[in-house]
Structure formats: C-alpha cells, structure tokens
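Journal club prep — side note

Before the paper discussion, L.F. wants everyone to see what a predicted structure for a comparable chain looks like in token form. Sequence:
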Amino acid sequence: SRGASSSSARDAVASDVAETSSDAESTAARSGGYPFADIEARWQKHWAENKTFKTPDQIDTTKPKFYALDMFPYPSGAGLHVGHPEGYTATDIVARYKRMTGHNVLHPMGWDAFGLPAEQYAIETGTHPRDTTVANVARFREQLQSLGFSYDWDREVATCEPQYYKWTQWIFLKLLEKGLAYRAEVPVNWCPALGTVLANEEVIDGLSERGNHPVIRKPMKQWML
C-alpha cells in the first residue's frame, strides 16, 4: 500500500541519517570538528546519482501539490553573495517538509540572465555577455549544489535561452491581441549612461544601482500592461 511504502521510505531515510550521524559524530570526536567535506560530498553525490529531488512527469494525483519558486539569481557576478543562501534556505526547508508530509513538490532553479545586470557585467569585464553568463551560471550552480539545496536540476532554466523567452514573447503577444498591452507616455527613471529606463528599486538617491550613474525623471513612451 502507499502508506506502507511511505513508511518504509521514511524508515530507510531515518536509518541512513542515523548511520551518517553516527559516522559524523565519531569522526568529529576524533578530529574535533564536523567533517564537512566528507559528509556533504557523500550525500550530494547520492542525491545527484539518485535524482532524489526530481519531480517525476507522472505523479500520484491523489497527493496535494506544492510549488516553491525562488527568485532566480542574476548570474552577473563571480559568485553568490550571502543573501542568496539566506533566502533560499527558508524555501528549501519548506520544500523538504512538504515532501516529507506527502506532497508532490516542484522546486526548480533558474537564472535571470537576460537584461541590464548581464550586460553591465560584460561591459565591466570586457567580455561577451554570453561568455560571462555561461561561466557565471556554472559557478552559481556549483555553489548552490555544494550548499545542498533540494532543487530539481532537470528543470533548470535560463531566461536568456530561446526555449524560455519564446514563451514570454508569446504571452506578451496574447496581451497585445487582447488590448491589455499598450503604449503610453509616462514619467520614467531614465539613465543616459546606461541608455535605459530603470525601476524605482534600481535608483538610489538619484543614482543607478549599477554603476552609480545619474538618473533623471522624464516623460517617455513605454509599453504598459
């Protein structure tokens, strides 16, 4: 039965955890510290090989669904900053809890790699944005995996890939067809140095968040939804 199967799975996990905890405690007692490299590498290898956190295409529809989507990081730097794991840890705890309580959990990860952050990083480093984005994504992925988050890496997406943004374009065209997307002249935050309009959150004390360039308010035609 499903109940018996779930119970067996929990028992197996509990046994593994107990064994690992015992090993860790023994090693810690001998060395005076927790052997991060040994324990973490072992479990990360196990999760990757067994696709522990993969959401199957065919699911048990009698189970409740739970969708946990983190804000995708901008791969526009040499690596994660402390704010990334701070936020991702909370959603990972909830996603793991939901799996343990019988939910079908979808917990993917992706990269917000299409726009000003990627462009500015490429300009600052003097390299093509695709090259910097690919390299940064690889580094970010490595760091997230080393932290042990329970993402379904088979569903990884990048907003700069055609197979992703073709759907955002499709959605926009549907909004346009229904008259829900239109052009209007409105006051905006314009940055002459960056040559683009900035959101309010991207302007700090009259300067652009990226580059500290002067920002002015001016009326311009914009797409509105």
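L.F.'s comment for the group: The helical segments are 2-31, 36-50, 83-100, 116-125, 129-146, 162-177. Keep this in mind when we get to the figures.
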